From TrEMBL:
Protein name: Chorein N-terminal domain-containing protein
Record domain Chorein N-terminal: where: 3-547
Keyword match Metal-binding: no
Entry's family note: Belongs to the VPS13 family.
Organism: Rotaria sordida
UniProt signal peptide: none
One Pfam family this sequence matches: VPS13_N
Record GO biological process: protein retention in Golgi apparatus; protein targeting to vacuole
């Protein structure tokens, strides 16, 4: 009753999750995907297989099967679209569905007609369904407007207590759109029909979910040598101390999600063959966080990654709030580990995974389009966005011979420190109302953001030269690209329906780009790159014969549609 405890308080503690995969399991997965692809193709073409024994020669059976499959799946469906019989059937379906939908709008549809409408909806595409429904709604609206309002009909409606269905003044749902109703509710302070949360305080949290994972490991197993009898761990990724929090406030439909990663480390192949597979003492470190103490005097380390996402914050200074803080990450190239991983995930034979590739590509495009539409919708509708991104400098080390050791030549690519944040603070709506004139109002109609990228640099250090000291300096002879900075000022208009105001304003500043490269340093870099052993493929490359001449002749034969149609219909049994 005092709203001090959430309705659902869930805490989940997981000690360790270990994921393992080896080369045999990877190849089995590829075989499974290939088998599923074969099954889907077989289910599509099995109906064209000749089951009788009229044809005794297997070659004739195969050619007839191929002919039937190609003609019925690829050629005939294209030509069927232009046959009058199919066109008439399609038009009849549209007319029938339109008449049933009109009866449904008038409230005179029967159960048999509803069932028939469901059958027609499966045969018609989305475009035709939308077009037919819109046309039917317009026709019904015109019919209702043309119907005379008789004295007896008004008396009968008054006596029975029924309201005319075509009277818009009596139906708020039809008169006003959802956006108009929301604006009206906001103006009068109405929160909707749900009175179950009307007594909740605004800061009350009804759902509090927490998940704690102490350790997440991913291990890749493989044989170091072909004659080895046992598998060994060739790569290990470790993520300790992962925390996920989800909280919801029901009054304003607000939620807050936070994700924290304590650390992230990647280990390679152990240099000591007698070491235990669960130990990382002799393993090279491919990725690790740089020292991230919260303060010089404190021994408490910061989290590697902190992500916070909140909608309708309680301070009401923004509609959405995003905060991402990442610490520096050191990434090293280790040739034995990379080459072994490439060998582990290399296919042993040429597999036909076209169906899997198409499914993966369709899923990728679907997710990409959905994400783009959602992001575009959010950007257009979010009035005030409070964002803060702080990504500390991460760098990549490419050592000579592909193995990092002390006193070896190293190429260091520093990706720089990125900061992206909202530049103005405070209540933007209140600030907009306090504008004195139209120019000041236009100036305050924008949410301002600041992007700053600094210390992007490229260093090449020879043997006995410290790249770590050079990385902290601004100008040395070891810099191939001196530290550069980029400043961007972005402004987003909070009004999307005003054509006089630009939606975005962008202003940037790149002071200078200083490149330094001598002929001696160029040859050193070339020798450095040639010293790194690259992955080698054990399987010979399968050369697919070119079918350009056949495809070009086939394309020329398909230029005349009428001749092709007559030829196909003439050879069709």
């Amino acid at each position: 009753q005092e709203f001090k405890r959430p309705m659902f308080d869930i805490k989940v503690d997981l000690d360790e999750i270990s994921l393992n995969i080896n080369r045999d399991q990877y190849l089995d997965l590829l075989d499974l995907f290939e088998f599923q692809d074969y099954l889907s193709i077989k289910s599509k073409y099995i109906k064209y297989q000749i089951k009788n024994d009229i044809e005794k020669k297997s070659s004739r059976k195969k050619w007839k099967f191929a002919y039937e499959a190609i003609v019925n799946e690829d050629i005939r469906p294209r030509f069927d679209c232009y046959k009058w019989k199919n066109i008439k059937t399609h038009l009849d379906r549209r007319r029938e569905y339109r008449s049933i939908y009109i009866q449904d709008l008038l409230g005179k549809v029967t159960a048999e007609q509803k069932q028939r409408a469901q059958e027609l909806e499966k045969k018609l595409d989305v475009f035709n369904l939308t077009y037919v429904r819109c046309a039917a709604e317009i026709e019904v609206k015109k019919k209702k407007e043309q119907e005379p309002n008789t004295w007896w009909g008004g008396v009968s409606n008054w006596w029975s207590g029924n309201k005319p269905q075509d009277d818009p003044s009596l139906d708020l749902q039809k008169v006003m759109s959802s956006d108009e109703k929301n604006k009206l509710y906001d103006a009068i302070g109405y929160e909707g029909d749900d009175i179950s949360i009307s007594n909740y305080p605004e800061e009350y949290i009804d759902i509090d979910l927490g998940i704690q994972l102490n350790l997440l490991e991913v291990n890749v197993w493989s044989k170091i040598n072909e004659n080895d009898a046992q598998f060994r761990v060739i790569a290990r990724a470790s993520i300790p101390d992962t925390n996920l929090q989800f909280k919801r406030r029901p009054v304003r439909s607000a939620m807050a999600v936070s994700l924290n990663l304590g650390s992230f480390q990647v280990f390679g192949i152990a240099t000591d063959p007698n070491e235990s597979e669960f130990s990382n003492q002799s393993r090279p470190v491919l990725a690790r966080p740089v020292s991230r103490l919260s303060s010089p005097t404190s021994k408490v380390e910061k989290k590697l990654l902190e992500v916070e996402y909140e909608t309708n914050p309680i301070d009401k200074l923004a509609d959405f709030r995003i905060k991402v803080i990442s610490q520096s990450l050191e990434i090293k190239y280790n040739a034995p580990t990379i080459n072994k991983l490439s060998e582990c995930f290399e296919q042993d034979t040429q597999r036909n995974l076209q169906g899997v590739k198409q499914a993966a590509y369709s899923t990728y495009t679907d997710v990409k389009h959905r994400s783009y539409i959602l992001m575009k919708h959010n950007i257009e509708n979010i009035k005030v966005l409070d964002i803060y991104l702080d990504l500390q400098s991460s760098y990549f080390l490419l050592p000579e011979n592909g193995i990092y050791q002390d006193d070896v030549a190293v190429m260091c690519m520093d990706f720089g420190h990125l900061i992206f944040k909202r530049n103005d603070q405070g209540d933007q709506v209140t600030s907009l109302k306090e504008a004195k004139d139209i120019e000041e109002a236009r100036e305050k109609s924008y949410t301002k953001f600041k992007l700053k990228l600094e210390n992007v640099q490229l260093i090449y250090a020879n043997r006995n030269e410290s790249w770590e000291k050079v990385r902290q300096e601004k100008d040395t002879r070891l810099h191939l690209i001196k530290p550069l900075e980029l400043d961007l000022d972005l402004e987003k208009c909070i009004y999307t329906d005003d054509a006089n105001l630009p939606a975005w304003k962008v202003a940037g500043n790149l002071p200078n780009v200083d490149l330094r490269l001598s002929d001696k340093r160029l040859f050193q870099i070339i020798n450095h790159m040639e010293s790194i052993p690259l992955p080698k493929s054990k399987n010979s490359t399968i050369v697919v014969p070119s079918m350009e001449s056949e495809s070009s002749s086939l394309q020329s034969s398909l230029n005349n549609t009428e001749q092709t149609l007559q030829a196909v219909e003439g050879i069709t049994p």
